[in-house]
Amino acid sequence: MLDFRIFATVFGVIFLAELPDKTAVAAVVLATRHRPLPVFVGTALALVVQSVVAVAAGGVLSLLPARPVHVAAGLLFLVSAAFMWRRKEEGEEAAADAAHPEGFRAALWKSFLVVFVAEWGDLTQLGTAALAARYRAPVTVFVAASLALCLVAAIAVFIGNRLSAILHPRHTQRVAAAVFVLLGIGLLCGII
């Protein structure tokens, strides 16, 4: 059974953190060069696989005593926030350049590989692992993180370049960094 409070927290944090991320930019770029459906499917598959990896890592962390894990998770969120605050906007070079449209399978696998590689060690992957360790609700964290990531992928693919007209990536990045700071402080103080 899903805990709605945990679900809402994880979904909100991961959604905000992923909006300005390089994987979202890669999905936008890939969608401008290929049909949207294979790009979305490939991107979503990569993000779901990475969520499994993150939750599994968080599950291992949950076997440790709670207070040290909370302190480590709090520090991780604070460090992630600092990197997120200082990170420059990712350019279009994150996606492979294709001069012409490819078939469904080729576009799907290209999207999968680009996003799968880009997501290793990413702030949202580390955040998902920390949240899985904190809440000890792997199914809820997995579902919430996966849905948040896939929603961002859908926005990136289907709205594409128009996203910059709706939300400036730098402002979204700063809001996500501030949320990470609040979560980090909350974890360090034992509030969350």
Concise synopsis of the structure shown:
The protein is an all-alpha fold and 192 residues long.
How many helical stretches? Answer: 9
Radius of gyration: 16 Å
What is the succession of H and E elements?
HHHHHHHHH
Main pleated-sheet profile: none
Alpha-carbon distance between the termini?
A: 21 Å
Mean pLDDT: 77
Approximate strand percentage: under 5%
Number of strands: 0
Low-confidence stretches: 89-101
Helical/strand content category: mainly alpha
Give the CA-based shape: globular
Helix content: over 70%
How would you describe the overall organization of this protein?
This protein has 192 residues and is mostly helical. Helices cover 78% and strands 0% of the residues. It contains nine helices and no strands. α2 (22-33) crosses α7 (138-159), α3 (36-61) runs parallel beside α5 (104-119) and α3 (36-61) crosses α6 (123-135). The longest helix has 26 residues, at 36-61.
